[in-house]
Structures are given as structure tokens and as C-alpha cells.
Amino acid sequence: MRAVIQRVSAANITVAGCVIGAIRQGLLILLGVAAEDTEAEADWLLDKALDLRIFENEAGKLDRSARDIHGELLVVSQFTLLADTRKGRRPSFTAAARPEHAVPLYEHFVKRARAQGVPVATGKFGAHMEVALVNDGPVTLILDSHHR
Fold first, then answer.
1. How far apart are CA 83 and CA 80, in angstroms?
2. Which residues contact 78 (CB under 8 A, 6 or more apart)?
3. Which of 143, 146, 147 is nearest to 47 (CA)?
4. Among candidates 100, 133, 108, which has minimal Cα distance to 45?
5. Is the pTM of this model over 0.90?
6. Which stretch of DSSP H or E encloses residue 30?
7. CA separation for the pair 102, 126 (Å, rounded)
8. CA-to-CA distance for 144 and 58, rounded, in angstroms?
9. Distance between CA atoms of 108 and 112, rounded to whole angstroms?
10. Which of 24, 48, 75, 146 has a CA 20 to 30 Å removed from the CA of 114?
11. Could you tell me the CA-to-CA distances from 16 to 10, 13, 19, 48, 124 in Å, in that order?
């Protein structure tokens, strides 16, 4: 599983002209599910994202996590994060999970976050989405459960 994590002061997602999810301060998580991923990778990635100390304390140091600040999540499925661009000019997406595997893992990730009391907004799996965000910092990180 691979994720691009962005610290945001606000973010929202629009499908067909309608905002379907919005958050205030927290994390925008673009989530890519690989064909071989399991719930263990989803659990690890969620815990890592929620515990990253990337929010500032009173002294301006990055010392607080999304959990510490009661941050919100906007989780967006993004199979293009699994693109292989080593050959040619057209990305290959063969490493990305098929929807029948990816959807349950994406939903597991979201359910597990909500079960921990984290407010979560989501995109719409498989839809054309427009994501708007205010990247705070900017702070952007890449997490990969296969490189832990």
C-alpha cells in the first residue's frame, strides 16, 4: 500500500460538481492499494499516518500527530500511485489491485480510522474526482507499507 500524505488546513472532494467530502485541519491521504496488499498493510499505514509528528507545537516544532490535534482525514483512492514508469512513456498499472481487492481494503482503512474516533471524509471509488486542498506548510510525505 502506498500513500501520499499532505498536512492540510482544509480539503474537499467534488464529484460531478457536488462536494461529497470535506475536512478542516488534518490529513489528505491519497491511498493506492497494490495487488498483494492485506489488512495488515492497511493497519500499519493508518497507524503510521495518524502518529506522524508533522503538526507544530506551541514552539513551532513538528511535534504533534494528527491524533494529538484531533485532526480529520480525507481519504481518496488513487490507483495511479502504483504506476510503473520505468519503461516507455505510458505508465503501467499492473501492480495496482483490481477493484474487487482494492475496495475492501480501502473500506477497511476508512472503517478502522472511524473506529478510533477519527473524523473521516472520503472520495468515491472509481469516480472522476476533483480534489481541492490547502497544503499547510507545505508538508507532503510518501508512505509505503512495502518499505517499512
1. 5
2. 4, 30, 31, 32
3. 143
4. 108
5. yes
6. strand 26-32
7. 11
8. 30
9. 6
10. 146
11. 20, 10, 8, 32, 11
Is 78 a catalytic site residue?
A: yes
Confidence bin at 146 (pLDDT 50/70/90): confident
Q: Match 478542516 to its residue by C-alpha cell.
A: 24
Question: Is 38 noted as a catalytic residue in this protein?
Answer: no
Indicate if the pLDDT at residue 72 is higher than 80.
Answer: yes
pLDDT for 126: 87
Q: Which candidate in 78, 93, 94, 125 is catalytic?
A: 78
Residue in 6, 55, 79, 122 annotated catalytic: 79
Buried b / exposed e along 6-32 (16+ C-beta atoms within 10 A): bbbebbbbbeeeeeebebebbbbbbbb
* Cα 11 from Cα 22, distance rounded (Å): 6
What is the three-class DSSP state of 77? strand
Cβ contact 84:95 at 8 Å: yes
CA 88 to chain centre: 28
* C-alpha to C-alpha distances, 113 to 120, 122, 146, nearest whole angstrom: 7, 12, 20
